Amino acid sequence: MAFKGQTSYEHQDNPQKKGVLLVNLGTPDAPNSGSLRKYLREFLSDPRVIEIPRILWLIILYCFILPLRPKRSAKLYQSVWTEQGSPLLVITKQQRQALKDKCDLEYGVDKMPIAMGMRYGTPSIKTALKELAEKNVRDITILPLYPQYCAATTGSTFDGIAKQLTSYRWVPSIRFISGYHKHPLYIQALAKTITDYIEKSGMPDKFIFSYHGIPLRYLQQGDPYFCFCTQTTRLVSEHLGMDDALVMTTFQSRFGKAQWLQPYTDVTLKSLASEGTEHVAIICPGFAADCLETLEEIMEENKAYFMQSGGKVYDYIPCLNNADDHIDMMFALIGKN
Question: Could you give the CA distance from residue 70 to residue 64 in angstroms, rounded to a whole number?
């Protein structure tokens, strides 16, 4: 292996810096089949994401999923795509800029560089690490934007970073934030979105806390994700003084025929509506930024399930995105680390 190293810098004129790397899941470059095929190939080839025998999965991936799924997924992305691009990418850029502004104010302009990378797609983790290296950042705090630790997301982010650093001749110091599902400022920020919603729209019959699902066997094999999700719901509910009967935790975005974490969001919404629940508000605390899974799956697809089953009012409470209190929480995490 040829190791990569910096050869052009001056110790005196270019002092070593501390910096931050924000990481989110990723997005295709465009809402078309070609871009989706490239993105899905990278995403679904990750052994952290799909934990079944490798050869069997590659046959399924290349013979069935990649020939068929990109076209369907492209249509879904087209429904949420903006003039600036993918919502996830646009919002993550906004988060990076807001965090940079706060760091510039606290530490001095460009004294603490902030880079962003995506686990899959562009801008890549490789590009982000290179950006920091070129600014002589030798101490990196890595913040994966997944509140609840999961091997398929946070663990995979660590893998991706470690893979890149194995080729570095001069490996930087790193601090890896593996989750923040019960951080007080995160709980307060979520609670504020709910109180703001109640002030504007009134109290629903149910608040649904919907998290991205994972296969049940991941939990059975030791992944703490399910426990962290339910803990986040409980802490927000307790912070607001909500009755337990008002709140539910559900899981969305299941894939394939295996059993995933339950209760399922879509099944729950159909059941609630058919049993007479008229008004629900749904929030997705596991997503740091609105994306396909919130803007299309929750706002459109699951809304249709609820309304068609007899529901009357269905409201979605947006992710924290680049809200001031969300950026304050990120800043606090960075300061602590």
Answer: 11
Distance separating alpha carbons of residues 196 and 287, to the nearest angstrom? 19
User: Can you tell me the distance from the alpha carbon of 158 to that of 97, in angstroms, rounded to the nearest whole number?
Assistant: 23
Phi-psi category of 251—alpha, beta or left, where left has phi over 0 and alpha has psi -120 to 50?
beta
Q: Which residues partner with 24 through β-bridges? A: 118
pLDDT of residue 336: 87
315 touches 193 (CB < 8 A): no
Reported as a single tens digit per residue, the pLDDT across 229-282 is: 999 999 999 999 999 999 999 999 998 889 999 999 999 999 999 999 999 999
Q: What is the pLDDT of residues 63-83, one digit of tens each?
A: 999 999 999 999 999 999 999
Angle between helical axes of 33-44 and 66-80 (0-180°, round to 10): 110
CA dist 249 and 207 (Å) reads 9
pLDDT band at 337 (very low <50, low <70, confident <90, very high): confident
Tokens of 304: 């249709």
- Burial of residue 85 (CB within 10 Å: 0-12, 13-18, 19+) is middle
- DSSP, res 172: P
Q: Which of 146, 92, 81 is nearest to 117 (CA)?
A: 92
Structure tokens at 269: 């919404």
160 residue type, one letter: G
User: Cβ distance 251 to 148 under 8 Å?
Assistant: no
Q: Which residue has the tokens 């396909």?
A: 292
Residue 306 binned pLDDT confidence (cut-offs 50, 70, 90): very high
Confidence band for 8, pLDDT divided at 50, 70 and 90? low
Report the alpha-carbon distance of residue 28 to residue 125 in Å, rounded: 15
Alpha helices, H only, the chain: 33-44, 54-60, 66-80, 87-107, 125-134, 156-165, 184-201, 216-220, 225-240, 265-274, 292, 303-308, 324-336
Spatial contact of 20 and 116, defined as CB atoms under 8 Å apart: no
DSSP label of 3: P
Indicate whether 7 pLDDT > 70: no
